[in-house]
Amino acid sequence: MNNAVFILLTAPFVGAVLAYVLGKVKRELAFWVAEVVGFVLFLASVVLFLKYSDTVIDIDYTWIAYGNLQLPFGIYIDHLSIVMLLVATGLGFLDIHFAHDYMGEDPDQPRYYAKVLFFIGGMILLVITKDLIGAFVGWEFMGLASYLLISFWYYKHSAANAGMQAFLYTRFGDIFILAAIALLMYYVGTVNLVELNKLADAGQIDKTIALVVALFIFMGAIGKSGQFPLYPWLMNAMEGPTTVSALIHGATMVNSGIYIVARLFDFFSYTDALFVVANVAALSAFIGSTSALVQKEIKKILAYSTMSHLSIAFVGLGVGSLAAGMLHLVNHAIFKALLFLSAGAVIYIAHHQKDAWKLGGLIKTAPFVALFMAMGSLSLAGVPPFSGFFSKEMVVAAAWEWGNGFTKTFVTIAALLSIAYITRLWILIFLGEPRHESIGGSVHKPSNLWMRLPLGILAFLTLFISIWQSDIIRYITGGEVVEPHVAGLTAFMLTGMLILFLIVVGLYVKGLNLLYKISSHHFVQTIHQVLFNGYYVEAMITWVSKNIIVGAIAKSARWFDTYVVDYIVNKTVDFTYAVYKIFRAGHSGKIGTYMGQFVLGVAIIVIAILIIVKGL
Amino acid sequence: MSFIVLIAAGLLVPIFYRSNIFIAKTISFIAFILAMYFIYTHNSLNALFPYFVSDEATRLMEYVLLITLMAVTFSLTGFERPLISQMLFLAGASLALLETNDFFMYIVLFEVIAIISYILVANIRNYYNAEGAIKTFIAGAVASGIILIGFALYSFNTDSFNYVDMNVAGKYTLIAVTIMLAGIFYKLTIVPMHGWAADAYSQINHAAAAILSGVIKSVILVATFKAFYKFMIAYPLASVLIFSFFAIITMTLANFMALWQKRISKILAYSSIAHSGYALIPFAASASLYAYSGVLYYAIAYIFMQTSVFLILNDLRRELGVKYLDDIKGLYKKAPLHSLFFTVQLFSLAGIPLLAGFLSKAVAFYAGVDAGLWVIVLIALLNSALAVGYYVWIIKHIYFDEPREDVERVILISNGSLIGQLILLAGTIYFGIVASNVFDATIQF
Q: How far apart are CA A2 and CA A7, in angstroms?
C-alpha cells in the first residue's frame, strides 16, 4: 500500500490513542500530539495531490470473503477524493491549531483531541474508500465522533441532549443507507461506488431499484448534511465547543452527504433522483436562509447559514452540475470554517457570551478579527472578488438554466438573503456600543500565533482561491465543463444584494428604533416566531415521535414485552435450574464416577456405531 | 531448526530459575522469535525428518501458538516459573504434532503432550491442586489406554500410517477409529469424557489451566482434524452422527452447568467444555469445503480468548484472592485494567462481533450450514444465546455491582502480565476483523 495512504488511514486512530494516553500523563502533550498528527495528515494529502493528480489510486481489498458472502473494502482515490482530503485535513489542522487557546482552559483536553483525531480519521475513511461499506464505516465513525463532541461538556444538560438529538436524527438517516447497502448487495451484487457509476452509465441496473437506492442514500445525506426535514439537530449541535462546530458542523462532516451524492453522481443522474435532490435542497436553502435572519445566537445564525449553503451546493448537484456543487462545497468549507473560527474568537474575547444582541462595539478591541470575519462574510454573501461569489453565481445560473421553477425561485431567494443575515450578524457583533456589561471591562486578547494566524490563513484563502476557480472545476470534473450562462443574472444578483445590504445597514446601524417598531407588530411577530423556531419542524418531529412512536407503538410493544416476553424469560430461570439439577447429579467430583462415565461413553459410541452404521 | 531452538532453550532456561527470572524470560522470548523465523523460512521439523510437512495453514496455527505461549511466558511470576521451560517443550511438541503427516507420530506426540500436561499440573501447592492433578492424570491414563486399544486394532488393517496412504477400508477400521476418537475426546473435554476437566480446570493453578484449556486443546483440535480427515471422508454417515451427537450434548450440558456455578473458574471451565462442543460442528461438517477453515479459525480464536481469561483470573486470585462471583463485585474499581481485559475476552467468548469469537463461530457454523447440518447449527445458536447469560453475568458483577467492602487500593497490572494480555487482546481483535489470513491459508486444503 502507498505510504501516504497508509498514514492517512492509520495515523488519526493511533494519534487519538496517543493523544489520550500522553495527555493523561501531561495535559499539554495531548495538544502537541494532535497538532503533529494533524500536520502529518495534511502533508500526506498534499503528497497525494502532488504525486497522484495524473493517476488514480485504486486498491482492491476484500475484508471478508467466505462462501458467497463478500465484504469488499477497497481504496479509491481520484481527484474528488483528493479535494475532499485537502479540505478535511487542512481545515482539521487549522482547527486543532486554533483550539490551543480556545480549549486552553479546559481540563479535559486529552479527551477533546482524541475525539477530534478520531473524527478526522472517519472523514478520511469516508472519502478514500471504494465501497459503500467502507464509506458507511467512516460515516458512522463521524456520527459517533460528532455525538461525542457535541456532548463534550456532558455535564451541561443542554449539551448532552443536543448530542443525543444529533445522534438520533442522523441515525434515522443512516438506517436508509444501511438499507441501500442491503438492496444493492441483493439486487445489483456490488457496493463498489466506481462500479455502480459504470453500471449506471451503461444502463445495466434496474431503474426502479436504482431510484429506491438513490433516494435511500439521499435520505442518509439529508440526515448528515442537515437538509429538510432532518436539520434541527444541526442547530442544537452548536452546544458543542465552537472549534467543533467549525470543523464538524461547518466545514467537513456536513459535507459528507454532498460528497456521497457527488461520488455517485452518474448513478444519481441515471435514476432521476437528482430531481428530488434539487427540490428538497431548494426548500432547505430557503428555510435555512430565512431562519438565519432572526436568530439571536451567533452560532445559530451560522448554523442556519450552513444549512442554507449546503443546500445551495446540493442544488448545484441536483440540477446536474457536479462542478458547481463541488466548487461551492470547497469554497463554503473554507469561508464557513473562517466564520466559525472568527465567531469562536469573538466568543473567546467576550468571555463566552454567545448572544449577538449582548455583544457590540468589538471592532475597537479586536480589529483583526473584525477584518477577517468581514472577509468571510463577504465571501459567504457572494460579493466579488471573493470565492463565494463565483460558486454561488454558478449554482444559481445552473438552476436558472436547468432547474424547474420551484428550485429556481427558492435558491435565488436563499442566495440573495445570505448577505442580509451575515451583514446583520457582523453589525451586531462589531459596530455600535457594547450592549452588555460583561464585555464592557476587560477582554481576552486574541494571541497572534494561535488565533489570528489561522484566521488570517483562511481569510487569505477565501480571497485568493477565486483565482483558481476554473482550475478547481477542471481538476474535479477532469475536463472542460459547460458553464451555465444566464444573461443579466450577475447584474440582477448584485443589485438585489446591494438593496438588501442597504436595508440591513439602514435598519441595524441607523434605524434600530424603526426596527423595534416594525417587529412589535403582531403579524411580524408571528412570522418572527415561525422563523426563529425553524418553521417548527423540530416541534413536529418531536410531536410525531412522542405521540405516535412512543405513545402508541412503543407502549403496545412494552405491554407485550412486560406480560409475554418477560414472563417467558423469567420462566427460563426455573427451567435452566431444573435442567442443571438433572445434569448436576452426574458431577459428584469423584474420579471414579467420571471414569465410569468415560468408559460408558466409549461403550455407547462403539455399540451405536456398530448398530447404526454396520447394521450388526 | 525451530524445534531444536525451542528444545535447547527449554533445557537452558532452568539454570536461571533461581538467579534471574528475567533472563529466563528473555531467553524463551528469543527462542520463540527464532522459532517463528525458522517456520517462516520453512525450516521447521520438515527439514529434518520425512514425517513432517508444513503447509500454510499449519504455519499460521504455529505462529498463533508460539505467540500465545510467548504471552503466557511473559505473564508467569513467582512459583509459576518452572512453567517457563515447559512452555518451550510444549511449543516444540506442538509444532511436531501440527506438522506431522503420519498417524503413528500423531498418537505418539499426543501422548507426549499428555505427559507435558501432567507435568504442568504437577505444580502442586495445596490440597485442591493435588486433587486436580490426580484427576487429570487418572483420566489421562484411562484415555491413553483406550486410544492405544483403538490404535492397536487399527494397525492390523493398514500397511502405512501416512495420512495420504492410510488404508481406511479395513474391516475393523471404523470401530478402531471410533475407539481412538473416544480417547481423544478426553483431551478435547467432550461430554461424557469431560468430568475430570470441569473439576481440574478450576482446581489446578490457573496459569496451568490457561495452557491446558486454551493452548493444548486448540493444538489437539487442529491436529486431530488433519489426522482423521481421511476417515471422516470415508465414513460420512458415521462421522456426521458421532460428531453431531457429541457436539450437541457437550454444548448443551456444559452451558446449563455453567449457568448455575458460583465459582468463576468453574464457569470458565464449563465454558471451555461448551466451546469444544461448538468446535465439533466443523468436524461433523467435514463434507463441506469450509470445514478446515472452520476448525482452524475456531482453534485460533479460542486459543487467544481462553488463555487470556484464565491468566487474568490467575492474577486476580493472586492479588485479591478472587474465587467466587461475589468476590468480583465492583471489580472495575479495584482492578480497572484487569476488568477491561477480562470483559473484552469474555465478550469474545460470548461471540460479540468484531472480536475473534464471533467470526470463529460464524465460520464454523457456516461450514455446518454448508454441509446441510442446519438443525445442529440452530441448536448451537440457541446454546450460544444461553451462554451469553453467564458471560454477561460475570461482566454485570464486575461493572454494575458495588464492591462488598471499601476499595483500599487499586491493583495495577504487572508489566509482564500487561504485555501478555496486550498480545492476546491484539490477537482477539485482529482475528475478529481480518479474516482473510485464515481463509487464504486453508484454500488449498
A: 9
CA nearest B284: which of B227, B236, B224?
Answer: B236
- The CB-side HSE value for A105 (13 A sphere, CA atoms) comes to 6
Query: Which three-class secondary structure state does DSSP give residue A63?
Result: strand
Give the B-side interface with A, CB within 8 Å: 134-135, 138-139, 142-143, 146, 174-175, 178-179, 181-183, 185-186, 191-193, 195-196, 198-199, 235, 237-238, 241-242, 253, 256-257, 259-260, 290, 293, 359, 363, 366, 370, 386, 433-436, 439
Count CB pairs under 8 A between chains A and B: 101
Interface membership of A613 toward B (CB under 8 Å) = yes
pLDDT at B321 (0 to 100): 85
Residue A440 has pLDDT above 70, yes or no: no
- Reported ipTM exceeds the 0.85 cut: no
What's the pTM value of the predicted model, to 2 decimals? 0.74
Q: Is A571 an 8 Å CB contact of chain B?
A: no
Contact of A565 with chain B, judged by CB distance below 8 Å, is answered with no
Q: How far apart are CA B216 and CA B235, in angstroms?
A: 27
- Is A438 in the B-facing interface, judged by CB distances under 8 Å? no
Q: Which residue has the cell 445559530?
A: A300
A567 interface with B at CB cutoff 8 Å: no
Up-side HSE of residue B126: CA atoms within 13 Å toward CB?
4
> Regarding beta strands A69-72 and A75-77, do their DSSP bridges make them parallel or antiparallel, or are they unpaired?
unpaired
Look at residue A406 and tell me whether its pLDDT is greater than 80. yes
Taking CA–CA distances from A70, the nearest residue in chain B reads: B436
DSSP code of residue A72: E
3-state secondary structure of B109: helix
Nearest by CB: A577 against B142, B235, B260: B260
Q: Is the pLDDT of residue A1 over 70?
A: no
Percent of chain B with pLDDT over 90: 39
CB interface of A with B, residues 38-77, below 8 Å:
62-67
CA-CA-CA-CA torsion sign (A202, A207, A209, A215): positive
Interface test with B, best of A17, A64, A576, A598 (most B CBs within 10 A): A598
Mutate to test the interface with B, among A17, A569, A572, A595 (most CBs of B within 10 A): A595
Flag whether pLDDT at B345 surpasses 90. yes
Q: What's the CA gap between A591 and B203, in Å, rounded?
A: 14
Report the alpha-carbon distance of residue B263 to residue A585 in Å, rounded: 18
Q: Exposure pattern of A184-201 as b/e (b: 16+ CB <10 Å)?
A: bbeebebbbbbbbbebbe
Q: Is the pLDDT of residue A42 over 90?
A: yes
Contact of B305 with B363, CB cutoff 8 Å: no
The span from the CA of B294 to the CA of B285, in Å, is 9
CA A484 – CA A216 distance, rounded (Å): 29
d(CA B34, CA B92): 12
Average pLDDT, chain A: 86
What is the torsion angle, in degrees rounded to the nearest 10, for the CA atoms of residue A419, residue A340, residue A136 and residue B392? Answer: -140
CA distance B231 to chain A (A): 14
Q: Where are the domains of chain A?
A: 1-271, 305-532, 586-616
What pLDDT score was predicted for residue B215? 92
Buried b (16+ CB within 10 A) or exposed e, B276-311: bbbbbbbbbbbbbebbbbbbbbbbbbbbbbbbbbbb
Q: Is A77 helix (H, G, I), strand (E, B) or coil?
A: strand
B257 pLDDT more than 80: yes
Cβ atoms of A96 and A38 closer than 8 Å: yes
CA distance A133 to A586: 50
